[in-house]
From TrEMBL:
It comes from Reichenbachiella agarivorans. Belongs to the class-V pyridoxal-phosphate-dependent aminotransferase family. SerC subfamily. Keywords: Amino-acid biosynthesis, Aminotransferase, Cytoplasm, Pyridoxal phosphate, Pyridoxine biosynthesis, Serine biosynthesis, Transferase. Residues 27-326 form the Aminotransferase class V domain. The lineage of its organism: Bacteria, Pseudomonadati, Bacteroidota, Cytophagia, Cytophagales. GO terms for molecular function: transaminase activity. PANTHER family: ALANINE--GLYOXYLATE AMINOTRANSFERASE, AMINOTRANSFERASE CLASS V. InterPro entries: Aminotrans_V_dom, Pser_aminoTfrase, PyrdxlP-dep_Trfase, PyrdxlP-dep_Trfase_major, PyrdxlP-dep_Trfase_small. Its cofactor is pyridoxal 5'-phosphate. Pathway: Amino-acid biosynthesis; L-serine biosynthesis; L-serine from 3-phospho-D-glycerate: step 2/3. Its EC number is 2.6.1.52. This is phosphoserine transaminase.
Length: 360
């Protein structure tokens, strides 16, 4: 029996993915050269579909990496000369901070307790900071930053670059991309694809910064440096052999999302999210980890489970429903429920009804 994965990534495959994988094999996608005309067409189609889905303005480009984790390194190497500023509210935003620090940057840390979030409007960022990093959706805790707060932060810091981790919230979060500089995600979260592909969106200001660091002799010209990624992206290619299958699948799934309509996807996400938080608020053994409603993630629900998670997760597993465990220090104490575009309303109703009917 195939389980339904409500895990926050990898998660359930997008409901059309299996068909696209079969087509890919039938059409030799897994064997073609990444310098062939066939590949170049796939690359271009995927990028164009994504630009359309996300409504990317002119001057914003898309590059591919192996993961979002890789993009943290590339941002630190290519977009920060000396000073960066990091809003940390959980494990993923913390990892970006650590990456910048390991690569020798003066990475200023602004950290809040897990389960809470930053009041961005109160924060004054030092002048010398070149890049601000934040996780719009912190997958480890289920805390989400409102887009309006992020835009306000940028409007007060227009001389700095703003880098957004939207790994587990795109394409659900609705951004005006002209109000941010760089944003990245991985395909195994909301896009419902196998892991192993990072997507990096960047603007002209990012390229300028990279060129400036290069001129100053503090730029690492590695295979996936931003300037190398961009040089190949202009030819609809990548610097090395990429995850061709995933680039192909991403284009197909984005087409399917365009056909369904992002408005529809966002409405369903809001409905399913209400089901999740209703459950958390009304079940005597569950408590939502994020208390403040405006900071609750739409795509990841995190709850503390009184008495521990083992019994609940086991009983759900026996019924073919796999929820995520708490992240790191919260393992055994919390569950995380992914609410991604592939999860249907019926599946979420089934999960909530099942939890309500269980004795744990
Ligand atoms: C999953 C995740 C990452 C890391 O993605 P990889 O593809 O494993 O590199 C980074 N940030 C957030 C918020 C995530 O959820």
């Amino acid at each position: 029996m195939n389980k339904i994965f409500f895990t926050p990534g990898p998660s359930a495959l997008y409901f059309t993915a299996e068909q696209h994988i079969k087509e890919a094999i039938k059409n030799d996608i897994l064997s073609i050269s990444h310098r062939s005309k066939q590949y170049i067409k796939i690359h271009e189609e995927t990028v164009n579909a994504l630009k359309q889905l996300l409504n990317l303005p002119d001057g914003y480009q898309i590059g591919f990496t192996s993961s979002a984790t890789e993009i943290w390194e590339r941002i630190a190497e290519n977009l920060i000369g000396e000073n960066s500023y990091h809003f940390v509210n959980g494990s993923f935003s913390e990892k970006f901070h650590q990456t910048a620090q390991s690569l020798g940057k003066n990475a200023i840390l602004n950290e809040v307790e897990p389960g809470t979030n930053h009041d961005l409007s109160k924060v004054v960022i030092p002048d010398e900071v070149e890049l601000i990093g934040l996780a719009q959706n912190e997958t480890s805790t289920g805390a989400m930053l409102p887009v309006a707060d992020i835009e306000e932060l940028r409007s007060r810091n227009l001389d700095k670059l703003l880098a957004i981790d939207s790994v587990s919230s795109l394409p659900v979060t609705n951004y005006d991309f002209s109000k941010l500089d760089t944003l990245y995600f991985s395909v195994q979260k909301c896009f419902g694809l196998p892991a192993g592909l990072g997507v990096w969106i960047y603007n002209e200001r990012c390229l300028e910064k990279a060129r400036q660091l290069q001129a100053n002799g503090v730029y690492h010209d590695t295979y996936n440096s931003l300037l190398s990624i961009d040089k190949f992206a202009q030819k609809h290619q990548t610097s090395c052999t990429p995850n061709v299958l995933n680039i192909y699948l991403l284009g197909k799934v984005v087409q399917d999302m365009l056909t369904k309509g992002l408005d529809q996807i966002r409405q369903e996400t809001a409905y399913k999210s209400a089901l999740i938080y209703n459950l958390f608020e009304n079940h005597e053994k569950l408590t939502p980890f994020v208390k403040e409603k405006k900071f609750r993630s739409l795509t990841i629900g995190v709850a503390e489970v009184a008495g521990g998670t083992d019994k609940l997760m086991e009983a759900l597993g026996a019924k073919g429903l796999q929820v995520g465990s708490g992240y790191s220090q919260f393992k055994g104490k919390q569950i995380r429920i992914a609410n991604f575009p592939t999860h249907s309303k019926e599946q979420m109703e089934l999960l909530v009804d099942t939890i309500n009917g269980l004795d744990f």
